[in-house]
Amino acid sequence: MALYSAAAAVLAGLERGEGGLKSLVYNSGFPHIRQLYALVSETLRYASVLEKLLDGAALLQAEKKLAPQLAKVLVYDLLFGKGLKCGGRWKALARRHRARLEAELARMKVRHKVSCNEDLLAPEKAVSAAASQVPRYVRVNTLKTCVDDAIDFFKRQGYAYLGKAASVEELKALSGKKFMLDLHLPELLVFPSQTDFHDNLLYTSGHIILQDKASCLPAFLLGPVAGSHVIDACAAPGNKTSHLAAILKNKGQIFAFDVDPKRIATMNTLLTRAGVTGCQLAQQDFLTVDPKDPKYSRVTHILLDPSCSGSGMRLQLLTWSQDVGVQTPGDRSCLAGMVTRGPREDAAPSTERLQALAGFQRRVLNHALSFPALWRLVYSTCSLHQEENEDVVQAVLQDWGSAFRLVTAFPSWPCRGLAAFSGAESCLRASPAETLTHGFFVAVLERCKEGAAAPSSLPAAAKRNSQPGEGTESGAAPKKRKKKKQRVK
């Protein structure tokens, strides 16, 4: 019964806007995360069907003490899943109403002229098709191995290596036990979408990280040179942090922040497994971090992936098995307060909620830009909404005047920012249809000149901390980065 209670609690939390699917699942305390994630994801997928079944069978009217969320997960497993895994009063309740529910399900199939349960999801077929095209991406952890050795390992396990992909179409055509090297990112291997590596030795030993391609873009585009001091502002569960450490070759210093102790604990486990050193974890709200603190006087790079609506991650509800596991509790971009659509997949975040998120994102981005030695920053979200992406970047650039500029991120990337303002095409977007990834947004900002004044819209404390300090790396960083920018292109 614990499974169903936990699943019902997650659904209730989604309805109340208390967080995102992944954050609620991973903070549930339920010991079998993959099992819980699967049940909630599939219940959400069948949400509209389940609501019609509950109405048609009048289950909630007959069982007035039964919460709607619990009813949904029980009926899902009873009719669509692998059968109820509980005893006691809930199993007895399900048995009492099973005949009525099955009869209502049969009537639904007749009305829709379908013969199987999956066909009741016909309106979602287009979404399902897009989700099924997203491959399984495997980032080789260069702190522990190299790409060639990883390829050799998989070949010994019976996988056929097809070389480096030349197009997205080639990745889309992958099937069976075949894999390729990604056409954009040099340490990313690509397998067919349903390939599962959670029991693979390379995964359990930290030699590979299961991370969506879009989620690899922020650290890759930030590209700090070895020896740099870097902040990962909203870091848990740590996939991007471990990627930063690999880029730095464990040489330099990473300051990683997250406000939630459970996510920090998860992150510590991941980073230890990945062989990351030189990373200071702090259970702290990034907005409370003092840019004037001497320990951050050499921070030249910041990766900012704040809480967002998570709209670009919706397809994970349909491909849960790709991302669930201790090492990959999802991309951090929506873990701390991600707003989801809740059990009704057709409901969008309210305008008020989007405005509140955008306001927070603007505050945290302004705060990040106030670090005195900062030279390069990557802002990313897993949102599809312009309010959280281009609009936030435009507002912050206006706040800072000529102090920072947008850099054209990955010019060869096919999907660009929306034309919300002049220069927005410098940003990039990702999507299942165009880039075979989850939905994502990335903007790269660089300091234009030293000594630029803080914008008048910033709090007084942020203004005092916005001037580049004496003896920092901010003046030298652009010279070091010229070659790196060419490599990124």
From TrEMBL:
Entry superkingdom: Eukaryota
Q: What are the Low complexity biased-composition ranges? A: 453-462
Pfam families per UniProt: Methyltr_RsmB-F, NSUN5_fdxn-like, NSUN5_N
| CDD domains for this protein | AdoMet_MTases
**Catalysed reactions, semicolon-separated:** a cytidine in 25S rRNA + S-adenosyl-L-methionine = a 5-methylcytidine in 25S rRNA + S-adenosyl-L-homocysteine + H(+)
Asked if the keyword S-adenosyl-L-methionine belongs to this entry, the reply reads yes
Please give the coiled-coil regions recorded for this protein.
Answer: none
The entry's S-adenosyl-L-methionine-binding residues are: C234, A235, A236, P237, G238, N239, K240, D258, D285, D305
Which positions are catalytic residues?
C382
Q: Which GO cellular component terms, listed alphabetically, does the Swiss-Prot or TrEMBL entry include?
A: nucleolus
Q: Which gene is the coding source of this polypeptide chain? A: Nsun5
Gene Ontology MF annotations: RNA binding; RNA methyltransferase activity
Q: Which organism is it from?
A: Alaudala cheleensis
Chain positions covered by the region annotation Disordered: 453-489
Basic residues bias (residue ranges): 478-489
Q: Which family does it belong to?
A: Belongs to the class I-like SAM-binding methyltransferase superfamily. RsmB/NOP family.
> Which residues does the UniProt record annotate as the domain SAM-dependent MTase RsmB/NOP-type?
126-448
Name a single GO biological process.
rRNA base methylation
Q: What is this protein called?
A: NSUN5 methyltransferase
Keywords associated with the record: Methyltransferase, RNA-binding, S-adenosyl-L-methionine, Transferase
